[in-house]
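Q: My labmate handed me this sequence with no annotations at all. I'd like to see what the chain might look like in three dimensions before we decide whether it's worth expressing. Could you predict it?
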Amino acid sequence: MRTKLSILLLIGFFLSPTITKAGLDIPKVKSHKQRRLPFFKKRRLEVKHNKWIAASLDLSLGIFGVHRLYLGTEAHVPVMYTLTLGGGGILILADLGLILLSKDIETYSNSSHIFMWRKEG
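A: Here is what I predict for the chain of 121 residues:
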């Protein structure tokens, strides 16, 4: 077993310079200019969200913040929901109340705040 591993390592060591040199011959072609986005900014799509889907995700997977992912939030929000187990259940119930009692849940979509009722600004 050791001999096979050492042979594979030696072959890889001697072939790696030829593999990297071969990659230099390929010309780089840019067909269009891409616009770079900052790391934390995402492209936001304008999508109508269903309040019943958001409520069912809140009830079933609320401690992980999946309902917030459905509504289009930043990546740090579900991480905080998971670490605090949904804010001890308080954030889950508050979000469920907001989702069910609001006429338009698009006001809460694409929010980057931990508390979804907090206004952007």
